[in-house]
Amino acid sequence: METPAGFQHLATGHLREGYGLCDVTAGIEYFDYGDGGVIAGNFWLAPIVLSTSPLVIGRKTNDGIWQLRQTFTTNAADSSIKVRMDVINQTAIRRDAILVRYADVNVNLNVLTDLFQATLLSAATSDLFGTPRSPGMQLRDAGHGTPTPHVQTVQPGPSPCNTFVHVKEPFFVGPGSLMLVYGEPTSSAGVMSIPANGSKTATALYRPF
């Protein structure tokens, strides 16, 4: 996550970015946040590259219930990264789910001076007091979904079934992380309801601002 060239916004040696899924119907969760943590017991199997142009990566859960297909596209004009996430229910019953996209963003790698803010449309961070060498980073929906943006006061990723634990809004200064939550029960849209052998799509966008 580098913009402009040479300025990495994920902490060097700690590339914390990824996704989590809460199976509300079964009361179990799966997540892989890179260096931000993975889960044992119920987990994602090894990723499979399904396409290279665009890059499409598929993963299934170890219990065979879920599949996640991620399609990554970049836009050189605005330096954005779009991640389409197709959540596939591989069972013969309807299931409710919560999907999380998360990133531990450190603008200019100045962790202590990052300003984190959540609005109705996005979660974002910028370097408030440090030397302004690069833009901040924003995470927002790029499809027709209605996720809830949140900022966390911790750098590791959230529990997909309990996303509120470290949320502090609308803003704070210091180490933190960004997330979009699709299907949060308290949102106007409610949880994601995915039909038997069906799928739902959510598209997240990282962009400098």
What does this protein structure show overall?
The chain is mostly beta strands and 209 residues long. The chain has a single domain (16-208), classed as Beta-galactosidase, Chain A, domain 5 (Distorted Sandwich), CATH 2.70.98. The protein has no helices and 15 strands. The strands form two sheets. Strands 3-4-5-6-15-10-9-8-12 form a nine-stranded antiparallel β-sheet, with no helix packed on it. β3 (48-52) and β4 form a beta hairpin. The protein is globular. The mean pLDDT is 91.
Summarize the structure.
This protein is mainly β. It has no helices and 15 strands. It has one domain (16-208): Glycoside hydrolase, family 65, N-terminal domain (Beta-galactosidase, Chain A, domain 5, Distorted Sandwich).
Q: Using the 3D structure, state the CATH architecture.
A: Distorted Sandwich
**Structural class, please?**
mainly beta
Which regions contain 5 or more consecutive residues with pLDDT less than 50?
none
Taken as a percent bin, the fraction of beta residues is over 45%
Briefly note the CATH topology name. Beta-galactosidase, Chain A, domain 5
CATH class: Mainly Beta
Secondary-structure element string:
EEEEEEEEEEEEEEE
What fraction, in percent, of the residue positions are helical? under 10%
Q: How is the main sheet built? A: 9 strands, antiparallel
Measure the end-to-end span.
13 Å
Estimate the global geometry from the Cα principal axes: globular
Identify the CATH homologous superfamily.
Glycoside hydrolase, family 65, N-terminal domain
Number of helices: 0
How do the strands of the widest beta sheet line up side by side?
Answer: 3-4-5-6-15-10-9-8-12
Number of separate strands? 15
Counted up, domains total: 1
Rg, please?
16 Å
Mean pLDDT: 91
